[in-house]
Each structure stands twice: as structure tokens, then as C-alpha cells.
Amino acid sequence: MANGARDDLRRVTQEQNNQYQKVLSFIIYLIVTLIMVTVTFLNPFFMKNQIRTDNNEAIIVRQVNKHFDTLASEIGANKNGNANLLTTKQTQPIADHIIDYTLGAFFKFNNLNLANQILYDIDLNIDQGASSDAQLVQQKLKKQGSNAPYEVVDAFSLNTMMVGSNVATALLLLNIIVLVMAAISLRSLISDLRTEMTSKKLTHTITGAAMWASFWLMLIAGIIALIPIVFNVREIAVFGYILEISSSIFLDFVIVGVVLYILSAILWEFTAQEN
Predict the structure, then answer these.
(1) Of 74-88, 133-147, 212-226, highest mean pLDDT
(2) CA–CA separation, 34 and 179 (whole Å)
(3) DSSP code for 104
(4) CB neighbours of 98 closer than 8 A, spacing ≥ 6?
(5) What single DSSP character describes residue 52?
(6) pLDDT digits (tens, 9 = 90+) for 227-248
(7) Who contacts 92 (Cβ-Cβ below 8 Å, separation ≥6)?
(8) How far apart are CA 224 and CA 222, in angstroms?
(9) What is the 3-state secondary structure (H, E, C) of 111-157?
């Protein structure tokens, strides 16, 4: 009977350990994911480097030219629809300023400064070596005078970008708050577990949870990264464009997950009971 009682105690302890591991796994997954999102998607320096990769340069040129085509139509500039109006060199400054605006750390209530910056980029980077269509747009913009910034606001959907910028700022603040709360919860949980487990057992439980967290990170990020490869997302407005750009970023998430899994597996095996 005494042996049975000890077996029951061991079974309950194992169930509790599994529950602890699930909670730890969720908290670790949340912390790692939020950190990755903050240092990638919400980081203007990272995103400006990201759009210069071979895969994303073509996407940026296509998207900026799409808005530039709209601008050309709005101001009555004839264009050749079979050729890009702007080159990579000419689209990059515009994309950089849009990223700086969208991922800026403050809430936005005006987009005319961005419109004027785009006008400045167009005027500065379209020279005699640019396409005749691009030069015509530049000339027509100069004739627009004070109306030119408003044409840019409309053609480049800057009102939508202003909303997106405020959403990104809110997400950044939310990420920081949730990260702090998750870190406090993790520390509190580990402190509680120290009173119930040996250091070896605690390490084994934490690394087991980290393995599950990294598995879910790899799985979810991998699926999202494959979406623009498997499906045509170009027609899904702004969201499709974001998915295209983010595909390679989510592959970075997968790599982080793999590294975390390997390190956790090594420690998990080392702290196994039989070792």
C-alpha cells in the first residue's frame, strides 16, 4: 500500500511537471516570437536592409512603380505601360523613406511631410539618364505646384500608410508590454519550480519546454514563409505585398527555431534522469 501511495505521488508529480512544461513552452514561444518580430518587422534598420536582398529588390521596384504609374495617370503624364518607369536606384530612396515613416516610433497624424520627401526623391533621382516617361512625370509634377503633395498622397496611398504606421507603433508598444509581463511570469514560475525540483530536473523541464517552443516556431513560421511561394498573393492588395517581403524573414524565424531546438535538445539529453 505504501508503494502504491508513492506511485500515485509520482504520477501526480509527472502530471504537474507536464503542466509546468506546457506553460513554460507557451511563455518561451511568446518571448522568442515577440523578440523576433520586434527586431525584424518593427525595426526600420532591419527592414531597409531586407528590401535590398536579391529576392525583395524586384518586389520593391514593382510596388513603387505601381504607385508611380498611378501618379502618372492622375497628373496626365503619358507613359509606356510595358516598361518600368523607375529603376532600382530610383525606387530605393522612396522605399527607405516610406519604411522610416511607417516604422517610426511615434503616432502619425500627418503624411504631407512624407509626400514632400517622395517628391524630393523623384526630383533628385530622375535625371537625364532616366526613362522619358519618368522625366515626363517629373515635369508634370513641377507644374502641379502646391497640389503635387496631395497627388502623391493619393497615388501612393499615404493615408493607408499613416494608419499602418500607427498600427505598427501600437504593436511595438504592445510587444514591449507583453514581453515585460511574459518575462516576469517566466521568472516567477521558475522561482516556484526551484522549491519543488532539483536544479537538474528544473533544467530538464525548461529545456524540454524550449524544444516544444522551438518546434512550434519552426512549424508556424515555415508555413507562413511558404504561403507566397505556393499561392499567388500579388493580388491581395497591401497584405500580399507584405507576405512577399516577409517570406524570407520567416525563414530567419525557422533558423532561430532550429538553433534553439538543437541547443535545448543537447541540454535536455544531458540532464535526463539516467545521466
Answers:
(1) 212-226
(2) 7
(3) -
(4) 114, 118, 156, 161
(5) T
(6) 888 887 777 766 777 888 899 9
(7) 51, 52, 60
(8) 6
(9) CHHHHHHHHHHHHHHCCCCCCHHHHHHHHHHHHHHHHHHHHHHHHCC
